[in-house]
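Predict structure. Chain length: 426.
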Amino acid sequence: MNDPVSRNTGINPDYLPRVVDSVIEDHLSAFGGVHIVGCKWCGKSWTGDRHSRSSIFLDSPEERSFARVNPRGALEGEEPRLVDEWQDVPELWDMARHNIDRANRSGMYIFTGSSVPPIDLTSHSGVGRFATVKMRPMSLFESGDSNGAVSLSKLFEGERIKDVSSELDYERTLDLIIRGGWPAGLGKDKKAASMIPKQYIETITESDISRVDGVRRNPATVRRVLRSLARNNATLAGTKVLRSDTAEGDEPLSNVTVINYLDALRKVYVIDEQESWAPSSRSKTRMVTSPKRHFVDPSLAVAALNVGRDNLYKDAETLGFLFESLCYRDVSVYASKLYGKVFHYRDKHNLEIDQVIEDGKGRWGAAEVKMGFLDTDDAAENLLRLRGKFSDETGPSFLMVLSATSKYAYTRTDGVHVVPLDTLGP
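Prediction complete.
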């Protein structure tokens, strides 16, 4: 039997590089520990293993039992030491923090977690000791489904796009949405790959949402909330809309219940909230405008709706919202390399922009998401209206239309880039 303390992970030759790898390396050089958070099955363990020199995996009953009786020993090993799914033994968090304080060196630990532990089980947030890095399911670039010829980083530098071919069309977009960005789904046939998000929804419904805080929740109610979120995916629907939508022939859920379930789903990183953007840091727009809610991967919305491919193929409106979530997932992944974030924009004049992308240098760009190529002109007009609200000094670094059906990536004469999602990369 291998000693769980001394296992040395080495390098996994099958590891597919992730955009977040460089972010993890940067933080390991600056902080005592890195805390990788995100939904289950997105590859946190593989990525943590890639950057560590020793490890303990707490989803293993043997190693979890070892850590509970000997927490000090669980943290011993060559550094960086990976502690995978640490929320199963939350006492390790405070102990690691104390070790970092005493040693006063960087790169000691990598903790991964797929849920937020109850706050009363840890005495300190880890600020100043641990840097938090969020992982999402794989982007199309990471899974090999985008050629990455159009670089988000270079768009911020003002680069124009030469004609780049795309292989994306309506049907391929549909298949990529149903499959999702799950590493375990790569290389599998369509039917096998689609079973992964379906099983994820079952896991959330039956156990994960209750395990996160010890509150037993009714699986039937969980399904109602998940279906409602899926029907309102990538929209500004608030709790009032979700409450009404959960009725399904029965009494609607109470406001408190909906809020409680949304909070639990956030804690297991299943839903992602795209905040609103305001040009000024003093503006209240971001505070008073509702966020858009997305599933962390659009395949989960498909699984929650429990619809077949043929039905979804005929429902262009729903597919459009799912494509918006696919774009939000991918652009969020690429923006993470720039220490940036993706917002949405809506002003009092009813100008709505699907994405405002900030980098870590105070720059920003804007993107509209359109399934159909014929909608490109309207999307470009919206983006140009937004640019007209700013001076050259404060305006966007780029304007972009993300498409599912354009055959090429190119820059229009008005400066707006048209970018099929399978040509975009970090």
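Summary: Confidence is low (pLDDT under 50) at residues 1-10, 282-288.
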